[in-house]
Design brief:
There is one protein chain. With 191 residues, this protein is an alpha+beta fold. Helices cover 20% and strands 30% of the residues. It is built from four helices and eleven strands. The strands form three sheets. The protein has a seven-stranded mixed sheet, with helices on both faces. The chain is globular, with a radius of gyration of 17 Å. The relative contact order is 0.17.
Protein backbone atom coordinates (compact mmCIF):
# COMPACT_ATOMS: atom_id res chain seq x y z
CA UNK A 1 0.00 0.00 0.00
CA UNK A 2 2.92 2.30 0.75
CA UNK A 3 4.15 1.76 -2.82
CA UNK A 4 0.87 3.33 -4.02
CA UNK A 5 1.74 6.51 -2.09
CA UNK A 6 -0.14 5.92 1.18
CA UNK A 7 1.32 6.65 4.64
CA UNK A 8 0.88 3.98 7.31
CA UNK A 9 -0.86 4.84 10.58
CA UNK A 10 -1.45 2.84 13.75
CA UNK A 11 -4.52 3.61 15.84
CA UNK A 12 -6.28 2.30 18.93
CA UNK A 13 -8.62 -0.68 18.66
CA UNK A 14 -10.89 1.22 21.07
CA UNK A 15 -13.02 3.79 19.25
CA UNK A 16 -15.90 6.18 19.73
CA UNK A 17 -19.30 4.52 19.68
CA UNK A 18 -20.45 7.10 17.12
CA UNK A 19 -17.86 5.84 14.62
CA UNK A 20 -19.25 2.32 14.86
CA UNK A 21 -22.79 3.54 14.16
CA UNK A 22 -21.73 5.88 11.35
CA UNK A 23 -19.12 3.86 9.47
CA UNK A 24 -20.12 0.26 10.21
CA UNK A 25 -23.87 0.54 10.86
CA UNK A 26 -23.12 -1.28 14.12
CA UNK A 27 -25.82 -0.44 16.69
CA UNK A 28 -24.55 -3.07 19.17
CA UNK A 29 -20.76 -2.67 19.30
CA UNK A 30 -18.58 -4.68 21.66
CA UNK A 31 -18.25 -2.61 24.83
CA UNK A 32 -15.04 -2.34 26.82
CA UNK A 33 -15.61 -3.07 30.52
CA UNK A 34 -12.94 -0.63 31.70
CA UNK A 35 -12.17 1.88 28.89
CA UNK A 36 -8.91 3.84 28.94
CA UNK A 37 -10.93 7.01 28.19
CA UNK A 38 -14.66 7.62 28.13
CA UNK A 39 -14.89 8.28 24.36
CA UNK A 40 -12.96 5.06 23.62
CA UNK A 41 -15.62 2.74 25.01
CA UNK A 42 -16.16 0.21 22.20
CA UNK A 43 -14.06 -2.10 20.02
CA UNK A 44 -13.85 -1.24 16.33
CA UNK A 45 -15.43 -3.39 13.64
CA UNK A 46 -13.99 -1.22 10.86
CA UNK A 47 -10.81 0.83 10.42
CA UNK A 48 -12.53 3.61 8.46
CA UNK A 49 -13.52 5.75 11.48
CA UNK A 50 -9.92 6.00 12.67
CA UNK A 51 -8.73 6.99 9.20
CA UNK A 52 -11.39 9.73 8.97
CA UNK A 53 -10.29 11.07 12.37
CA UNK A 54 -6.63 11.18 11.26
CA UNK A 55 -7.72 12.89 8.03
CA UNK A 56 -9.46 15.57 10.11
CA UNK A 57 -6.28 16.06 12.15
CA UNK A 58 -4.25 16.46 8.96
CA UNK A 59 -6.75 18.95 7.53
CA UNK A 60 -6.63 21.03 10.71
CA UNK A 61 -2.88 21.28 10.09
CA UNK A 62 -3.48 22.54 6.53
CA UNK A 63 -2.62 19.33 4.67
CA UNK A 64 -4.22 19.46 1.23
CA UNK A 65 -3.42 15.95 -0.03
CA UNK A 66 -3.69 12.98 2.33
CA UNK A 67 -3.15 9.26 1.69
CA UNK A 68 -3.43 6.96 4.74
CA UNK A 69 -3.60 3.24 5.38
CA UNK A 70 -3.76 0.93 8.37
CA UNK A 71 -3.34 -2.80 8.87
CA UNK A 72 -5.07 -3.90 12.04
CA UNK A 73 -7.57 -6.13 13.77
CA UNK A 74 -11.29 -5.50 13.93
CA UNK A 75 -13.64 -7.14 16.42
CA UNK A 76 -16.98 -8.84 15.73
CA UNK A 77 -19.31 -11.12 17.61
CA UNK A 78 -19.16 -14.71 16.33
CA UNK A 79 -20.56 -17.56 18.44
CA UNK A 80 -18.61 -20.15 16.41
CA UNK A 81 -15.22 -18.90 17.71
CA UNK A 82 -13.96 -20.96 20.65
CA UNK A 83 -11.46 -19.99 23.35
CA UNK A 84 -7.90 -20.70 22.33
CA UNK A 85 -4.33 -19.50 22.71
CA UNK A 86 -4.95 -16.57 20.34
CA UNK A 87 -8.76 -16.36 20.36
CA UNK A 88 -11.51 -15.27 22.72
CA UNK A 89 -14.68 -17.33 22.65
CA UNK A 90 -17.57 -15.61 20.90
CA UNK A 91 -15.45 -12.97 19.17
CA UNK A 92 -13.82 -12.98 15.75
CA UNK A 93 -10.71 -10.80 15.33
CA UNK A 94 -9.86 -10.68 11.61
CA UNK A 95 -7.03 -8.55 10.20
CA UNK A 96 -8.05 -5.81 7.79
CA UNK A 97 -6.24 -3.44 5.45
CA UNK A 98 -7.92 -0.10 5.00
CA UNK A 99 -6.90 3.00 3.09
CA UNK A 100 -8.17 6.54 2.57
CA UNK A 101 -7.33 9.07 -0.15
CA UNK A 102 -8.24 12.76 -0.01
CA UNK A 103 -7.42 15.86 -2.01
CA UNK A 104 -5.58 16.11 -5.30
CA UNK A 105 -5.34 12.93 -7.34
CA UNK A 106 -1.69 13.68 -8.15
CA UNK A 107 0.93 15.71 -6.34
CA UNK A 108 1.14 19.23 -7.74
CA UNK A 109 2.82 19.16 -11.15
CA UNK A 110 2.77 21.07 -14.41
CA UNK A 111 2.10 18.01 -16.60
CA UNK A 112 -1.43 17.23 -15.41
CA UNK A 113 -4.61 19.16 -14.75
CA UNK A 114 -5.35 19.43 -11.02
CA UNK A 115 -8.37 17.36 -9.92
CA UNK A 116 -9.51 15.67 -6.72
CA UNK A 117 -9.10 11.95 -6.16
CA UNK A 118 -12.16 9.93 -7.17
CA UNK A 119 -13.54 6.41 -6.85
CA UNK A 120 -11.65 5.18 -9.93
CA UNK A 121 -8.25 6.35 -8.62
CA UNK A 122 -8.66 4.32 -5.42
CA UNK A 123 -10.18 1.39 -7.32
CA UNK A 124 -6.95 1.39 -9.38
CA UNK A 125 -4.89 1.37 -6.17
CA UNK A 126 -6.87 -1.64 -4.91
CA UNK A 127 -6.34 -3.44 -8.23
CA UNK A 128 -2.59 -2.73 -8.02
CA UNK A 129 -2.52 -3.99 -4.43
CA UNK A 130 -4.26 -7.25 -5.35
CA UNK A 131 -2.48 -7.88 -8.67
CA UNK A 132 -2.03 -10.37 -10.28
CA UNK A 133 -5.10 -11.97 -8.69
CA UNK A 134 -8.45 -11.85 -10.50
CA UNK A 135 -10.31 -8.85 -9.02
CA UNK A 136 -13.89 -7.85 -9.76
CA UNK A 137 -15.88 -4.86 -8.48
CA UNK A 138 -19.64 -5.18 -8.04
CA UNK A 139 -21.96 -2.26 -7.24
CA UNK A 140 -22.97 -2.54 -3.60
CA UNK A 141 -24.01 -0.64 -0.49
CA UNK A 142 -22.08 0.01 2.72
CA UNK A 143 -23.02 2.24 5.70
CA UNK A 144 -19.88 4.38 5.30
CA UNK A 145 -20.10 4.94 1.55
CA UNK A 146 -22.10 7.00 -0.93
CA UNK A 147 -24.91 5.00 -2.55
CA UNK A 148 -23.94 4.55 -6.18
CA UNK A 149 -20.26 5.18 -5.50
CA UNK A 150 -19.49 1.97 -3.64
CA UNK A 151 -18.40 -1.45 -4.81
CA UNK A 152 -17.81 -4.78 -3.18
CA UNK A 153 -14.39 -6.19 -4.03
CA UNK A 154 -14.36 -9.82 -5.16
CA UNK A 155 -11.03 -11.65 -5.33
CA UNK A 156 -11.10 -14.94 -7.24
CA UNK A 157 -14.92 -14.78 -6.94
CA UNK A 158 -14.92 -14.43 -3.11
CA UNK A 159 -16.00 -11.27 -1.20
CA UNK A 160 -12.88 -9.49 0.08
CA UNK A 161 -14.01 -5.99 1.06
CA UNK A 162 -15.36 -2.66 -0.17
CA UNK A 163 -14.19 0.50 -1.91
CA UNK A 164 -16.18 3.71 -2.07
CA UNK A 165 -16.57 7.43 -1.62
CA UNK A 166 -17.52 8.56 1.89
CA UNK A 167 -21.27 9.10 2.27
CA UNK A 168 -22.32 12.79 1.94
CA UNK A 169 -23.96 12.78 5.38
CA UNK A 170 -20.68 11.65 7.00
CA UNK A 171 -18.69 14.16 4.94
CA UNK A 172 -20.96 16.88 6.29
CA UNK A 173 -21.14 15.50 9.86
CA UNK A 174 -17.34 15.29 10.11
CA UNK A 175 -16.88 18.71 8.43
CA UNK A 176 -14.84 17.56 5.43
CA UNK A 177 -14.61 19.98 2.46
CA UNK A 178 -14.43 17.09 -0.05
CA UNK A 179 -15.42 13.44 0.18
CA UNK A 180 -12.47 11.09 0.75
CA UNK A 181 -12.41 7.74 -1.02
CA UNK A 182 -11.67 4.69 1.09
CA UNK A 183 -11.28 0.94 0.92
CA UNK A 184 -11.26 -1.88 3.44
CA UNK A 185 -10.11 -5.39 2.61
CA UNK A 186 -9.76 -8.66 4.48
CA UNK A 187 -5.99 -8.96 4.95
CA UNK A 188 -6.07 -12.69 4.17
CA UNK A 189 -6.60 -11.90 0.46
CA UNK A 190 -3.14 -10.30 0.35
CA UNK A 191 -1.36 -13.60 1.05
Amino acid sequence: VAACGYQEVITFSFVEERWEADFAGNAQPIRVLNPIASPLAVMRSTLIGSLVEILKTNLSRKAERVRLFEVGRVFKRDASVMDGALTVGGFDQPMRVSGLAYGAAEALQWGAVARNVDFFDVKGDVEALLAPRQTKFVASEHPAFHPGRCAQVLVDGQPAGFVGELHPKWRQAYDLPFAPVSFELDASVLN
